[in-house]
Amino acid sequence: MVSIEEAQRTILEQITQLETEKVSVFQGLNRVTPEDHIAPWDIPAADNSAMDGFAFCHAGVVENRLKVTGFLPAGEVHEQQVPAGEAIRIMTGAPIPPGCDTVVPIEDVEENGDWIRLPVVKAGTHVRKRGEDIALGDVVIPVGSLLRPQEIGMLSAMGGTSLAVYRRARVAILSTGDELLEPGSTPMPGKLINSNSYSLAAQVLDAGGDPVLLGIAADTLEATCDKIRAGLNADMLVITGGVSVGDRDFVKAAIEEMGGQVNFWKVNMKPGKPLAFAMLDGKPIFALPGNPVAAMVSFELFVRPSILKAMGHRRIFRPVVKAVLQEPAKNKGNRPHLVRGIVSVHENSYCVSTTGNQSSGRLSSLILGNGLMKLAPESSLAAGEEAEVILLDRGFEMGCSGDGAF
Ligand code: AMP
Ligand code: MG
Fold first, then answer.
1. How many CB atoms sit inside 10 A of residue 102's CB?
2. Which of 132, 286, 323, 404 could serve as 350's disulfide partner, Cβ 3.0–4.6 Å?
């Protein structure tokens, strides 16, 4: 039996980065840059006004009065030198006219015809300096950065219209089992509906990948080989079911039949234990358990980080936090238990309670939850003690309560 970490390490060592492609800046959202982005100019390009107000030379003020001799809206330039004692009415964003060094906001002055009376103003106030945001030559977005809305804005500010990003991973998904029917069918004795293809495809999409649904393989060696062959057109293949040692489990045999080297492990975890990983024609193949919860949890631990690595991400694992148990929690078994938990934030600390019945066939135990609590083998924690929790919901990644309240 191998540990979760050992299985992750062995798998991730074999995952290589995909090629890059050129996309429009906007389509770069949630993708990763394979290169540094360097500022082609200063931002802002010139000293400019941070307020609607009056620009003037601070040293030239006499008796707190200035004569207003011009108007400068954003988008225009005032080229003539402004003499001492004079002011230009200036709008936010307009470049500071030559001779001026300070701006006083409109609401702070007393206006009287062409004249204004100033309050006490410090030299240089309300002026945004050239290059104070970004200076020419700065590495603004380093290689390996995830492009979020703020990076998209910055790339646009630097004049970009297209850029290179790592390509999305195409991930083929195959369900196996004679008992499976596709959604839309009516349940029949002995049959059940294939939900794994869709939960796994959604997990692929959620990780930024591009799922390719291969449907269901019947429980025969030939049918399994045919579907795996089709899956090799993608960048990776995820198979669910048929991976144990039952009489109708053909996944491992099919991969070997086709020349794949199979790492077959019993991973020391609950839910999920059987896991096969193979490289076939240079493509990673993940064979996950058929059990719906085990399939999704195994995807979280082994497939998601692999997709993220292939797509150039630096941070490939979910955040893990310490959370205070709201109820006692016990693991009587001899494998680490990933208990589906409900995580919330109270008074600046994470709290966690379990989603109730933890049977690994119950998809509802995942629906109620937003985290996976790690319970060591043969351990028993009292309410109030801390447990480590893997945060699955995006809202929790930044440590917020998700209710929008400050
Ligand atoms: P297996 O690993 O093939 O023995 O499958 C274990 C159990 O997982 C099966 O008996 C089904 O109840 C369930 N299962 C397998 N594949 C799927 C699937 N695609 N969707 C939903 N449940 C599945
Ligand atoms: Mg099966």
1. 22
2. 323
pLDDT tens figures, 53-75 = 999 999 999 999 999 999 999 99
Long-range CB pairs of 65-72, under 8 A, 24+ apart, other chains included: 65/115, 65/116, 65/117, 65/118, 66/115, 66/116, 66/118, 67/114, 67/115, 68/114, 68/115, 68/116, 69/114, 70/97, 72/97
Average pLDDT over residues 214-235: 98
CA of 361 to the centre of ligand 2 (A): 14
| Beta-bridge partner residues of 322 | 388
Q: Are 210 and 171 in contact (CB under 8 A)?
A: yes
Residue in 43, 24, 250, 194 with CA at minimum distance from that of residue 129: 43
CA distances from 181 to 96, 151, 240 (A): 70, 44, 14
How remote is the CA of residue 184 from the centroid of ligand 2, in Å?
A: 20
